[in-house]
Amino acid sequence: MVTDHRKLPRRRGEELAAAIYRATLDELAESGYAKLTMERVAERARASKASLYRRWPTRVALVMAAVYHSLPSLSEVPDTGSLREDLLTMLRRTAEILGGPAGEAMRGLLAEALGDETVARTFRENSQGAGRRMMAEIARRAVERGEIRAESVTPLRLDTGQALLRQHFLFQGPPIPDRLVVDIVDEVLVPLLTR
Q1: Is the pTM of this model over 0.90?
Q2: How far apart are CA 11 and CA 195, in angstroms?
Q3: 78 phi/psi in degrees, rounded to 5
Q4: Mind listing the pLDDT tens digit for each residue in 129-168?
């Protein structure tokens, strides 16, 4: 049954965007990226297709916006007082995110980007670097506590943990075992940042 959006209460701005993001993530969880359409998202969000296309001209843009909206913000970076515990908490969150709709979106977007340079360009242009910023905040706090030296913190080292999780996720699929998270922290990240 198709909902006539004109008979529904008017939503605008953030309220409408939040409903569309939620509908997008629900569609990803239920149907997967390959079957996600703007029409199905609009129907689930009880919104018009035009309201989607005005904000997000493509499925890629919509999915990326919904996923980024669902990710933790910089203010939610763990602060346990310990580099190791902060890294474990952060990578466990990443593993959980990859096991949900955001991971489904990532696999679908990457698959689509492999065959379409326009999609690949959109994907690159819209990547926000949130993971690196969160890891940088964890490292900054560890430097302040004297656990690591500032010169040990490099962009490549900040990307390593999440890159290893994504590698496992893309080739092995979800769920990401907690043992892998612990091994990445203990065998790779802590030694890289403390040497």
Answers
A1: no
A2: 53
A3: -60, 145
A4: 889 999 999 999 999 999 999 999 999 999 999 999 999 9
